[in-house]
Amino acid sequence: xxxxxxxxxxxxxxxxxxxxxxxxxxxxxxxxxxxxxxxxxxxxxxxxxxxxxxxxxxxxxxxxxxxxxxxxxxxxxxxxxxxxxxxxxxxxxxxxxxxxxxxxxxxxxxxxxxxxxxxxxxxxxxxxxxxxxxxxxxxxxxxxxxxxxxxxxxxxxxxxxxxxxxxxxxxxxxxxxxxxxxxxxxxxxxxxxxxxxxxxxxxxxxxxxxxxxxxxxxxxxxxxxxxxxxxxxxxxxxxxxxxxxxxxxxxxxxxxxxxxxxxxxxxxxxxxxxxxxxxxxxxxxxxxxxxxxxxxxxxxxxxxxxxxxxxxxxxxxxxxxxxxxxxxxxxxxxxxxxxxxxxxxxxxxx
Amino acid sequence: xxxxxxxxxxxxxxxxxxxxxxxxxxxxxxxxxxxxxxxxxxxxxxxxxxxxxxxxxxxxxxxxxxxxxxxxxxxxxxxxxxxxxxxxxxxxxxxxxxxxxxxxxxxxxxxxxxxxxxxxxxxxxxxxxxxxxxxxxxxxxxxxxxxxxxxxxxxxxxxxxxxxxxxxxxxxxxxxxxxxxxxxxxxxxxxxxxxxxxxxxxxxxxxxxxxxxxxxxxxxxxxxxxxxxxxxxxxxxxxxxxxxxxxxxxxxxxxxxxxxxxxxxxxxxxxxxxxxxxxxxxxxxxxxxxxxxxxxxxxxxxxxxxxxxxxxxxxxxxxxxxxxxxxxxxxxxxxxxxxxxxxxxxxxxxxxx
Lengths: 350, 353
What we know:
The complex is a heterodimer of chains A (350) and B (353).
Chain A: E1 8-12, H1 16-27, E2 31-35, E3 50-51, E4 56-57, H2 58-68, E5 74-77, E6 82-88, E7 91-96, E8 101-104, E9 106-109, E10 113-115, E11 132-134, H3 135-144, E12 157-164, H4 179-194, E13 199-204, H5 214-223, E14 228-231, E15 234-239, E16 245-251, E17 256-262, E18 264-269, E19 271-273, H6 275-284, E20 311-313, H7 323-349
Parallel strand pairs in A: 1-2, 1-9, 2-5, 9-20, 11-18, 12-13, 12-18, 13-14
Antiparallel strand pairs in A: 3-4, 6-7, 7-8, 10-19, 15-16, 16-17
Helix pairs in contact in A: 1-2, 1-7, 3-4, 4-5
Chain B: H1 3-12, E1 22-25, H2 28-33, H3 35-48, E2 53-55, H4 64-68, H5 74-90, E3 95-98, H6 101-116, H7 118-132, E4 141-144, H8 145-151, H9 153-158, E5 174-178, H10 181-184, H11 200-207, E6 211-212, H12 226-230, H13 235-249, E7 256-259, H14 262-279, E8 292-294, H15 295-303, H16 307-310, H17 320-326
Parallel strand pairs in B: 1-2, 1-3, 3-4, 5-6, 5-7, 7-8
Helix pairs in contact in B: 3-15, 5-7, 6-7, 8-11
C-alpha cells in the first residue's frame, strides 16, 4: 500500500489558492510541486497595500500564505510556467518551461486571474491620458506613501470608475468581478485619509457589497469620509488644455448628464481568467464557462471538480472571489483531492 | 498625453485597404454641396496615382437618410444596397468605395446583418431578383473614400508643394480632425484606428506636416444626426452640438477642421455662419471662422491644385487665411468664374471673405 508521500500533486499557481492548498495537502502528507510563473509566491496579494473590509495590511496575509508553503514536502518552482500536461491512464506527466518532467497523481489548477487590460476600454484613454490609472497603480501610490498626479502634485479631485471590463458586453465580459466595488470603497477611504482636502467621486452601476462588513464600509465611506457615490457609467474621458481630465457621466439617479473635471481617474479593472489558465484548458480539453473562467463540474456541490478526472480547481480560475472565499475554495479542493487519491488507492488494492 | 498609447490602439484597428480597382459610389450631400471633392477624388486616384476607379451611372442614392428617419424600411434599403452590389458584380469589382459616411455605415450594417442573420441575405437576394432579375456578390471590402486617401497619404505627401506648415514661421499648422459617427462608432473594425482614437484623418494631417489637436469634445457628434435637422424645429439641438465642439476647440486655436463625413463638413461649416448671425461669435483667431475642409480639398491644396478648382470657395467659412499661412497663391478675381468663363453670383455673408 503506497504512502501518501509516494503520491505527487502538481499545483499550478502559487497565489492565495495555490499556497493554501499546497500547505494543507503537505500537512496531509502529500508531496507537492508548486509551479509559479512569477518571481515570488503570493499572487495578486503582492499588489495590494491594505485589504478590505478591515484594512489589514496585505503583508499579514502574505505572511500567512508563505507560512503555509514552508514545508519540506513542497517544492516550489518560481519563474516557471507549464509547457504541457499529458494524461496517461490515471497518471499525469507535467512538463515545465524549464524542461522538468513531473509525474503527478493529481493536478490542482490554481492559475488565478489576469487583470483586465483597460486599454480595451478605449474611451477612458488609459495609456494615453497621463492621469488615468488603474486600481492596482493606486495601490502602488499608497505603498509609496504619496498620491500625486503626473504633474507631481496631490489631486484636488479624484474620480473612481467602477466596472471597468466587468458587466460589459462591449468587451465580452458579462460577469461581475465582485471585488472591485468594495475595493473602490476601500481606496476612496484611503485617499480621503491621506488627502483630507481631496474630493472623491465613485461612479457605479450597482454597489455590490456582498461580503461581511462590506456594507458597513460603504456606509462609513459616505458618513465618515464624505465620499460621493454617483450611479452612472463614465462614457468618456478626455484631457483639456490645462491637462486636467474631463469626464462625461450620466447621473442616472438625478436623471441628467454630468461633466466633471478631475485630476486623477482611477479605473476599477475587473478580472478575467488568466491566459496561462486558458492555455492549459486548451491543452487538456477542459471546459470553459460563458464567463471565460474554468467550468466546474457542478455549480453547487462540485465546484472544485473539472470535466477531467484527476484535475481540480481552486480559487479565482473558476470565478471572481475575494481572499476569504478563495481560501475556503482551496481548502475544499484539498478535501476533494484527498478523497480522490484515497479512492484511487482503493481501486489499486482491489 | 502619450502618443504611444494612441499608436497601440491604431495597431489594433488596421484595415485592409486594396491598392487598386475601386467601384465608386457617390454621396448625395457631397455632390450637391461641395462637388469639387468627389471630382478631385476621381482625378487624384485616376490621373495622379494611376488607379482604376469605376463609377456606374446607374448608381442611386442608398436611401440612408430615409432609413434613418424611419421612412425607408430595412428590407427596402437592403435591396437598394444589394442592387449597388449587383452593379459592382456585373462590372467585376470586388471592393466598393463609398463617398458618404452615412452610406458607409449603412453598407457596414447591412453586411454585418447578413453575416449574423444569413436568412436576411437570402431574402434580399430574392427581393432583388424578383424586382430586377439581378444577382450579386457581397463585396470583399467596404471602403470609405477617406480610407483610400489615407492609403495613399504618403504618395500625396511625396507630391506636396504646400505642406501644412505656416510658411512664415515654419510651425506646423494646428488641425482639428473630425470623424463621422457612422464611420467607425458603430463598427470600430471598419475604421482605420477604431472609434475612439481614429487614425484616418490624423494620419493624413501628420503625413502632410500638420499637428492634430486633441480637445475635450473631439469625439462629440457634429450635430448632424438625422432627426436633429430633418425637423426644422429641432435644428437648435443640432446647432448646440456643433457649438459645444467649437467652444471646446477654440482655446487650441485650430487653423482648420478636417472632416470625413459629408454631414459633418456641411454642418460644422454652415452652423458657424448661423452662430455668427445669431450671436456674433466666431471661433477662429482674430475674429475669423475655422475653415472646414474635406480630405480631398486638403489633399488638393497641399498638392498645389487651384483652390477654386477644388471648390473650397463653396463653404460658408472661406479658406483664404489658411491658404495665406500655407503660402498657397490664389486669384481672388477668379473665385467665382465658371468653367465656361461666365461669372457666377458670389454667395453673401461668407465668413473670412
